[in-house]
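Sample intake sheet
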Amino acid sequence: MRVEKKVHRTRTYQDGIEMVKSMDLAGSFLSTCGLALAGKEQKED
């Protein structure tokens, strides 16, 4: 039973890492789009 708990914890930890990775990708994608939009607005001024 103790081993099962450890395995479950490790799996949850890995799921968390995957979630952070995908959030990181989405975050960098959004900030890149935001910078592109901000650059366009500055050029128009």
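Comment: The chain has a mean pLDDT of 80. DSSP finds one helix and no strands in the chain.
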